[in-house]
Amino acid sequence: MTNLRDPVIQQLLGGVFGALVLATIVGQILGRAASSDGARATVANMNQRIAAWWIMCAVFSLALLTGGIGSIVLFALLSFLALREFITLADSTRADHRALVIAFFVATPVQYVLVGVNWYGLFSIFIPVYVFLLIPAILAVIGDTRDFLRRTATIQWALTICVYAISHAPALLLLEIPGYENREALLLFYLVLVVQLSDVLQYVFGKLFGRHRIAPRVSPNKTWEGFVGGVLCATAIGTALWWATPFAPLEAAAMSLTIALVGFLGGLVMAAIKRDRGVKDYGTLIPGHGGVLDRIDSLTFAAPVFFHLTRFFFQ
Amino acid sequence: MLAALIAGFARLVTGATASWLVEPQTARRRVYFANHSSHADFVTIWAALPPDLRIRTRPVAAADYWRGGAVRRHVGEKVFRAVLIERDGGREAALELMTAALAAGDSLIIFPEGTRGDGLQVAPFRSGLYNLARADPEAELVPVRLQNLNRVLPKGASIPVPVIARLTFGAPLALAPAETREAFLERARDAVVALDVAPA
């Protein structure tokens, strides 16, 4: 149970909302200063993103402060919405309908119930073993063999990324780290903070200094300048926050660097899927950002890796 | 009240984002005609309409389905105010019911394919739309394209899957003088097919 009276939580929340206040002020100043149409459009989009960040930070903070259950419900909802965006984009067919009913209304809630009841053994194999086998079995019983492997893999992939991977974020609450009892929610906060900061800072450095594109055919907005600046800055902040984690300063540096790098790869992979399907965003739910999956694309890769590294080395 | 709840629920399930190529006007009575692939089709269109248009818009539906069962009957008659057509009642009777609704100032939702398709192809239109256009030249004929509804609730399924649906309202068309039935129906069908927007 996370407590508002916990000074660590107070400082972290103070830092986040302080940064938001600062970003809002800077956004307003930039809005006044913008002279060209292009600059105005960029600043307008940036301010829209900042406004959405206020809401996202508020929701996430509230969920965190309820202790475990709020975070589990929040991430279950995010998984559901992400799965919805992914399946919509991936072009399911009528023959997939029953498998999709299972994916949305059975696999997704069960995975989060397993987090809630602290059943690590089944949590870690439910989707990779049982659901993995169930999906092709359902499709085979229904009997439409057109594109069988592609359809099966699409649903399995969607569940693995949108549900299984994301569920590792609230699963951090299950870890029992010696000397860090009852503060596991801080780990979830730390993961989300470093991943999202890395995204934001890559965007900021890219806008300011971006020249050389990393993968122009996948994501035209990702530049080497943005990547290096964003990852290094996020790592620096992640290191500076070592006192809120069970990690020593060097360990915190290694962890946050890993999260930022893996998160970058997640963003790149999810961008490749969008590129192939010919869309810019997965959805329209979050103004300025796109869909839920556009916002948590880095987290899909960073969450399971951070979870297992922490579990392996610190539990 | 119940209507607003049903409309809200339908929007939640289908996540439908509606786009209007021509801004809706409240003054005119209209016939919305759309491709048909799901039981959820008409409620999706109905729910996407602005509330002031929605209360004046009635789906045209099969009487045998909407008269079966007390709940269905109540919802069909009181909430949707469906124009119920007997399957074997004959073309004249059906046209009379629809033109009477238009004459009263209401708008209609119809599916000129006549039956639900697989969601991939739009079947040739039956002549109901043409007959309506001739009977009431004042009514605006608005093509509507529904996408992904066959994935939300395909034929034969009972549990909707929350795939995000899209619907696009196109520019109204009218029956041209001396246009043949075949040419008009072909043009109307093309108007629906042409609203096939790329994924947003």
Furnish the topology, listing elements before pairings:
The complex is a heterodimer of chains A (315) and B (200).
Chain A: H1 7-33, H2 37-65, H3 68-90, H4 97-116, H5 120-142, H6 148-167, H7 184-209, H8 224-240, H9 249-277, H10 292-314
Helix pairs in contact in A: 1-2, 2-3, 3-4, 3-6, 4-5, 4-6, 5-6, 6-10, 7-8, 7-9, 7-10, 8-9, 9-10
Chain B: H1 2-14, E1 17-20, E2 30-34, H2 41-48, H3 51-54, E3 57-62, H4 63-66, H5 70-79, E4 83-85, H6 91-103, E5 107-110, H7 128-135, E6 140-147, H8 149-152, E7 166-169, H9 181-193
Helix pairs in contact in B: 1-2, 6-7
Characterize this entry briefly.
The complex is a heterodimer of chains A (315) and B (200). Chain A has 315 residues and is mainly α. Chain A is built from ten helices and no strands.
Give a verbal description of the structure.
The complex is a heterodimer of chains A (315) and B (200). Chain A has helices at residues 7-33, 37-65, 68-90, 97-116, 120-142, 148-167, 184-209, 224-240, 249-277, 292-314. Helix content of chain A is 75%, strand content 0%. The radius of gyration of chain A is 20 Å and the shape is globular. By secondary structure, chain A is mainly α. Chain B is an alpha/beta fold. Helices cover 38% and strands 17% of the residues of chain B. In chain B, strands 1-7-6-2-5-3-4 form a 7-stranded mixed beta sheet, with helices on both faces. In chain B, α1 packs across α2 and α6 (91-103) packs across α7 (128-135). The longest helix of chain B is centred in the first third of the chain and has 13 residues, at 2-14. The chains are: A mainly alpha (315), B alpha/beta (200). The interface between A and B is medium-sized, with 21 and 18 residues.
Question: Can you give keywords for this protein?
Answer:
heterodimer, A: 315 residues, mainly alpha, 10 helices, globular, B: 200 residues, alpha/beta, seven-stranded mixed beta sheet, 7 strands
